Automatic annotation (TrEMBL):
Organism, as annotated: Sphingomonas immobilis
Lineage: Bacteria, Pseudomonadati, Pseudomonadota, Alphaproteobacteria, Sphingomonadales
The protein's name in its UniProt record: DNA polymerase IV
Catalytic residues (UniProt): 105
Name of the gene: dinB
Broad class of where this protein is predominantly found: cytoplasm
Pfam family, one: IMS_C
PANTHER family assigned to the protein according to its UniProt record, in alphabetical order: DNA POLYMERASE KAPPA (PTHR11076:SF33), DNA REPAIR POLYMERASE UMUC / TRANSFERASE FAMILY MEMBER (PTHR11076)
InterPro entries linked to this entry: DNA/RNA_pol_sf, DNA_pol_Y-fam_lit_finger_sf, DNA_pol_Y-fam_little_finger, DNA_polymerase-Y, DNApol_IV, Rev_trsase/Diguanyl_cyclase, UmuC
Length: 358
């Protein structure tokens, strides 16, 4: 595994950078992609905005408090997708082993790159130069012998830089880092680790596998390995998508059944448009609800065959949201997700459901 050459390419403030590229008046200014409405959320922030503490997923009102001069630009996802296709076409000139993570980042295995470039460092440098020349956008890159280290490394020289973690430095480098930076350690897990005296990679490495299993269950093996710089996952160009969903935040908390149901149906239609376009259909439908006090709940049910009709998806979504109606407190957000993908059943009418709502 130490002989592998893995690059993690991560575009710099992708959505915001596209907007600044296309509108010169936005360059050098704090820009947020999203809506400034009371219930709006920042989808992406330029580096100028980040200097004020504006980040993605931040409520728009909070972002404006932190940066009163913040400029909101509505998202243009069709444009971002088109640029992403340009970038992936560049990747394909170097390797077939490309694993996209999102529109703006991907893993590349360049152990045997198509251009015969001797080092992964030089390969990453050439890829970044081509991205800049062909799209006008900058990218950062992490280079290492596994995916975990490559992804960590791509953050090290942002924006518009690259950093390599070689086999002889991997373990020692991981020990110096805060565990909150590790892929797979979210804010809740990082807080739990801190309570257990684990704040750095060195702290994590010092814990036995038995200790980690006691406190983190099935994730213990992963934490045990990454503390030692180990990750044997291959770059998988055929990685299957596990779910697809859509959600919306309302302008005000909703309490009326009809308005809540209409919101859920709208999200179901958004998800169905993706299903129809990709020809991917799921057996499981999940409805997410976020109340005005930010409490989250989900309700799910599974069909014995894929939900391959819009009417079926709408019916399942309505059934799930009605399981929490009427509400005693307002609903801020609703979402619909399909998962557990399976071949289309060919049925266009409701199938009997099984399993409890949960």
């Amino acid at each position: 595994m130490a002989d592998r050459k893995i690059i993690h390419v991560d575009m710099d403030a992708f959505y915001a950078s596209v907007e600044q590229r296309d509108d010169p008046a936005l360059r050098g200014k704090p820009v947020a992609v999203g809506h400034a409405a009371a219930r709006g959320v920042v989808a992406a922030a330029s580096y100028e905005a980040r200097g004020f503490g504006v980040r993605s997923a931040l409520p728009s009102v909070t972002a404006l408090r932190r940066c009163p001069d913040l400029i909101f630009v509505p998202p243009r996802f069709d444009v971002y997708k088109a640029v992403s296709r340009q970038i992936h076409a560049i990747f394909a000139d170097y390797t077939d082993l490309i694993q996209p993570l999102s529109l703006d980042e991907a893993y590349l295995d360049v152990t045997a790159n198509r251009r015969g470039i001797a080092t992964a460092w030089a390969t990453a440098k050439e890829i970044r130069a081509r991205i800049l020349a062909e799209t006008g956008l900058t990218a950062s890159a992490g280079i290492s012998y596994n995916k975990f280290l490559a992804k960590l490394a791509s953050d090290q020289r942002k924006p518009n830089g690259q950093f390599a973690v070689t086999p002889d430095m991997g373990e020692a480098w991981v020990e110096t880092l805060p565990v909150a930076r590790f892929h797979g350690v979210g804010p809740v897990t990082a807080a739990k680790m801190k309570r257990l005296g684990i704040e750095t990679g060195a702290d994590l490495r010092a814990k036995s596998l038995a200790f980690l299993q006691q406190h983190f269950g099935s994730s213990a093996d992963w934490y045990h390995d990454i503390a030692r710089g180990l990750d044997e996952r291959p770059v998988d160009p055929n990685r299957e998508r596990k779910s697809s969903g859509s959600e919306t935040t309302f302008d005000r908390d909703l309490t009326a059944d009809a308005e809540i149901e209409a919101g859920v149906l709208d999200q179901a239609d958004q998800v169905w448009a993706w299903c129809e376009r990709t020809r991917e259909f799921g057996r499981t439908v999940t409805v997410k609800v976020k109340y005005g006090d930010f409490q989250n709940i989900t309700r799910s049910r599974s069909y014995p065959a894929a939900v391959d009709g819009q009417a079926m998806l709408r019916e399942a979504s309505l059934m799930l949201i009605r399981s929490v109606l009427p509400v005693e407190k307002g609903i801020r957000l609703v979402g619909v997700t399909v998962s557990n993908f399976a071949p289309a059943s060919g049925l266009r009418s409701a199938l009997p459901l099984f399993g409890e709502v949960g």
